[in-house]
Amino acid sequence: MADFLLPVDRDSPVALRDQLYRQLRQAILDCRLPAGGRLPSTRSVAQQTGLARQTVVEAFDQLIAEGYVVSRPASGTYVTETLPDQLLNVRSRQGRARHETEAASHLSKRGSRLASVRIGATPEYAGAPPFQTGTPALREFPFELWARLTSRLLQSRPVELLAYGEPGGYRPLREAIAAYLGAARAVRCTPDQIIVTAGAQQAMDLVARLLADPGDAAWLEEPGYVGARGALGAAGLRLVPVAVDHEGLDVDAGRARCPHARLVYVTPSRQYPLGVTMSLQRRRALLAWAQQAKAWVLEDDYDSEYRYAGRPLASLQGLDEADRVVYLGTLSKVLFPSLRLGYIVAPPSLVESFKSVRELYGRHAPSLDQAVLASFIAEGHLARHIRRMRRLYAERQAFFVRQCREHLSGLLDVAQVDAGMQLIGWLPEGVDDQAVSRCLGQHAIVTAPLSKHYLGELPTRRGLLLGFGGYDERQVADATARMAEVLRSCQLSAVSFQQS
């Protein structure tokens, strides 16, 4: 029993009974509790977990009710010979295949491209399981402060915020964002240049629709962000992967491969997913090419705030003298993902066009959320929150690396970096990262395989993207130890990418 039963999380919003039920159910589905096998008594489980016996009994009753186990009087509780999930999985696979085939025949070409994009974790992972990327420290969010700002706003009965708002966004929020970007990111803009969006993903979609036609070429970093690939590809653009090295995007390689591209997507402050910083020489070369080719540069500044050595680097947009850079930002990783508020900093010549397109696609972001966020930024709370999180994430990264070296030595090579909320864990040579990621996912450990971020030729050595920012020391210690067990059990030496 001790081999698979994990400690329950008494701080979790999930009831203790449900946590235990899920652990037992997963152990049955993974065959760690084999068909026909006897479960330990409710008394022994209660002693091991520290739960009340009644809580354990309720978890057992739920398993009995769903057909996973059977109770035999005077004998004990046993795993059933035929699990309900085995029957359900056969039916669901058949039904899913039929529905996918039917859907494919109904979709447009653009619809097919859109439907094929998978950006983040799959829906079965509720909440923020380790080590999901892009997850901030949600338990550290200033709930009381946010509640006070919200209450203060609502008590003023802001009737105007219940009506239709400006397509560009709530004016005080645009003013607050412009002031913040000027001070923290050396972005040169006025509030009029800010277009508030429903996150960075919508911003990329709007840019692709407005600035390029189907068939136009777009440079993408190789490897690069899957969401950008999806947004630009779904708009019908011809995607041109351009290699990234220790200085960032190789501009000379891009010019040689496709000198007349219409768009280029870059993450210069901290390249996603490799984490390198684009050198000043490369930045100037990219801007010079964009001006010459009359191309647009999409600068995604997705987590530049979290740099642990020295000051955050200045933006590419701040160097742009020809107004060819469209700057994208989001507050989802800084505050919380469900906020879904991002922004575009548009060149002056494009402001009115972006407002028109924003009005067409969603009209505007929720005004009440924008108003609360405006106060949060303008009163200095955002800057304080970022400073606090920067210290916390530096500590969490150091602890995460120590745990990986303790538990995962020889299985996953993880090195400390000076920025960001995720690391790359390098697998042994020849191991298929996608197969390993699937194996870990079966045990509720969410990782992103590095090879998924390549559009062209795959690397010989592969790895996993591991988010550490959203998990405290206890969660990291438990998850890395469990991860080591899973990696050993899936026999990494046998998971070669020739089998992919």
In short:
This protein has 500 residues and is α/β, with parallel strands linked by helices. It has three domains: 1-106, Orthogonal Bundle (Arc Repressor Mutant, subunit A); 118-136 and 385-499, Aspartate Aminotransferase, domain 1 (Alpha-Beta Complex), CATH 3.90.1150.10; 141-379, Aspartate Aminotransferase, domain 2 (3-Layer(aba) Sandwich), CATH 3.40.640. The chain is built from 16 helices and 14 strands.
Key traits:
single chain, alpha/beta, Arc Repressor Mutant, subunit A, Aspartate Aminotransferase, domain 1, Aspartate Aminotransferase, domain 2, 3 domains, eight-stranded mixed beta sheet, four-stranded antiparallel beta sheet
What does this structure look like?
- The structure is a single chain.
- The strands form three sheets. Strands 3-10-9-8-7-4-5-6 form an eight-stranded mixed sheet, sandwiched between helices. A four-stranded antiparallel sheet has the order 11-12-14-13.
- The protein has three domains: 1-106, Arc Repressor Mutant, subunit A, CATH 1.10.10; 118-136 and 385-499, Alpha-Beta Complex (Aspartate Aminotransferase, domain 1); 141-379, Type I PLP-dependent aspartate aminotransferase-like (Major domain) (Aspartate Aminotransferase, domain 2).
- Residues 121-126 have low confidence and may be disordered.
- It is an alpha/beta fold and 500 residues long.
- The chain is built from 16 helices and 14 strands.
- 42% of the residues lie in helices and 12% in strands.
- A hairpin with a 2-residue loop joins strand 5 (238-245) and strand 6.
- The chain is globular and about 80 Å long.
- It has helices spanning 16-29, 42-49, 53-65, 84-106, 109-115, 143-155, 171-185, 199-211, 226-234, 251-257, 280-293, 351-360, 367-378, 381-407, 433-441, 473-489, and strands at 69-72, 76-79, 194-197, 217-222, 238-245, 248-249, 263-266, 296-300, 325-330, 342-345, 413-414, 422-426, 448-449, 463-467.
